[in-house]
Amino acid sequence: MSSSQISEIEQEQLIEKLEIFKIHGRDKHGRKILRIIGKFFPARFLSLDVLKKYLEEKIFPRLGRKPFAVLYVHTGVQRSENFPGISALRAIYDAIPVNVRDNLQEVYFLHPGLQSRLFLATCGRFLFSGGLYGKLRYISRVDYLWEHVRRNEIEMPEFVYDHDDDLEYRPMMDYGQESDHARVFAGAAVDSSVSSFSMRCIS
């Protein structure tokens, strides 16, 4: 199934159901956080136009005119399932209103992995103008995230903590020298992603 096989309304409902984008909590500077769960992004099911419309109508207005931060959770992302493509990323970024882009102060990138670091190091400056690349802050563990974000205000899917536990016992996963495919990518279908979204919010 592709985006051409489900209606625009169904695509919008899918975005809502999965809670891919959620304005949720604040960082240590008191800035609102836009949390993005990469694993829940169903790239094969969404059209670029529907995604941009959703952001323009449901997300950007709620960010207001004040500085904010993005928390992007990269845990469990698969290129074939969750990656919209380089051209789509650039189109989404270009569609962000200038005032919203200017108010973005920091991007906390949780569980980046070696491949995403290399991709951003080689393509990030080309893809993202306006200094966004310089606002990236890589966060390798959830515990390190709490140095920047108010932990009692942010909810995380259980698989994020599970991946953290895996990294403690298999640290070479951080450098791409050991695969976490069997553990993290099992059951990556949309419905199973939703059902596994049990929360563990630590105060």
Pick out its properties.
Ganglioside-induced differentiation-associated protein 2-like; CRAL-TRIO_dom_sf; single chain; CRAL-TRIO_dom; five-stranded mixed beta sheet; globular
Written description of the protein model:
The chain is of the alpha/beta class. The protein contains ten helices and five strands, in the order H-E-E-H-E-H-H-H-E-H-E-H-H-H-H. The protein has a five-stranded mixed β-sheet with strand order 1-2-3-4-5. Strand 4, helix 6 and strand 5 (about 135-140) form a beta-alpha-beta unit.
Provide a short characterization of the protein structure.
This protein has about 200 residues and is α/β, with parallel strands linked by helices. The chain has 10 helices and 5 strands.
Helix count, per DSSP? Answer: 10
Q: Give the biggest beta sheet.
A: 5 strands, mixed
List the strand order in the largest sheet: 1-2-3-4-5
Backbone shape: globular
Order of helices and strands: HEEHEHHHEHEHHHH
Quaternary: single chain
Low-confidence stretches: 175-203
Alpha carbon gyration radius: 16 Å
Q: Helical proportion?
A: 40-55%
Span between termini: 40 Å
- Helix and strand composition category: alpha/beta
DSSP, total strands? 5
| Average pLDDT, all residues | 79
